[in-house]
Design brief:
The protein is of the alpha/beta class and 260 residues long. It has 10 helices and 10 strands.
Length: 260
C-alpha cells in the first residue's frame, strides 16, 4: 500500500491530465492506467471560463484524488501564490511544487524550491516537491518537513528514462523513510519498472502516455510496468555479478560419453 501524508492508495502510478488528443481519450487513458491520483495545473483549470469548468467536471467524473501543481512558476513567490489559489479552487492542502530555473530543460530551481517549500509547509500544505536527483536538495526538503520528494529521471518530456541511475539509487538508500516518486523523463513502461525495481515508491508521468499513438493502450502498459517493477523489488532482485554462474549445477552430475 502506498501512503501520501496519511492517505493510502493501491496504485503506484500517478498521471497527468495535459496534452491528450481529446478530453474523452484523457478520461479513458486515466481509467486504463489505474491511477488514483491525477495532477492538474491551476493555469489550465482556471483558463477559458466555461472550458475550465468543463475540464474540472471531467476530472471529477474519474473519482480520483487531485494533486494541483504549480507548473510554469519561475519564482518562490509565484509558486506560493499559485498554491494558495489552488487550495481555494480544489479544496485540498496537497500541492505538487514546481519552481523552474531554465526554460529549455525545465530544470527545477533548488533555491526557489526550498524557499517555497518552507513557506508552504508553514502555511499547512502537504508539499510534493519536484526536484533533480541532487541528494543535498532532497535532504533539505526532508528536513523542512516534506514527507514526499519527487526527483526527475530526466528532463520533462524527454523520454530518456533513468539517466543518473546511481544518483537515484543513492537517494533511495539515504532517504529510507521518505516516500520517493520518480517525476518526469520516463518514456517507456520499462523505465517505470526500472524505477520501482530500485525501490522507488511510485512514478508520475504524463507525456509518455498522452503523446503515444494509442494513449489508452500505453496507459495500460505503464500500469503493468509499475506492477511488475514493484513485484520484482518485493521479491528480491538478484544482484549483478562480475563472472558467470551456471544455472545448472555440474558438481556430482554424471556425464555420459559415447564409447567406440
Amino acid at each position: 500500500m502506498l501512503t501520501f501524508y496519511g492517505k493510502s492508495f493501491i496504485s503506484r502510478l500517478l498521471i497527468g491530465t495535459a496534452l491528450y488528443p481529446s478530453p474523452a481519450i484523457m478520461q479513458e487513458a486515466i481509467r486504463a492506467s489505474g491511477a488514483e491520483i491525477v495532477t492538474v495545473s491551476l493555469r489550465r483549470e482556471a483558463a477559458g471560463g466555461r472550458a475550465g469548468e468543463s475540464f474540472w467536471s471531467l476530472v471529477r467524473e474519474l473519482n480520483v484524488t487531485v494533486l494541483p501543481n504549480t507548473a510554469g512558476c519561475r519564482s518562490a513567490r509565484d509558486a506560493v501564490t499559485t498554491a494558495r489559489l489552488a487550495r481555494e479552487l480544489f479544496g485540498t492542502q496537497w500541492i505538487k511544487l514546481e519552481v523552474i530555473a531554465d526554460d529549455e530543460t525545465l530544470q527545477p530551481d533548488p533555491v526557489g524550491l526550498l524557499e517555497a517549500a518552507a513557506l508552504l509547509i508553514r502555511d499547512g500544505f502537504a508539499v510534493f516537491p519536484y526536484c533533480t536527483e541532487d541528494l543535498g536538495v532532497a535532504m533539505r526538503l526532508r528536513d523542512l518537513g516534506c514527507r514526499v520528494v519527487m526527483p526527475w529521471a530526466a528532463p520533462i518530456g524527454s523520454a530518456r528514462g533513468l539517466v543518473n541511475r546511481e544518483a537515484l539509487k543513492l537517494l533511495r538508500a539515504r532517504l529510507p523513510d521518505v516516500t520517493l516518486v520518480i517525476d518526469a523523463g520516463l518514456g517507456a513502461p520499462s523505465h517505470a519498472a526500472a524505477a520501482l525495481e530500485l525501490g522507488y515508491d511510485a512514478v508520475l508521468l504524463n507525456t509518455a502516455v498522452a503523446k503515444a499513438a494509442d494513449p489508452v493502450a500505453m496507459a495500460r502498459a505503464f500500469r503493468l510496468g509499475v506492477q511488475a517493477g514493484r513485484t520484482a523489488f518485493e521479491a528480491g532482485l538478484m544482484g549483478p555479478r562480475d563472472f558467470a554462474s551456471p544455472s545448472t549445477p555440474v558438481v556430482g552430475t554424471p556425464f555420459w560419453h559415447a564409447v567406440s
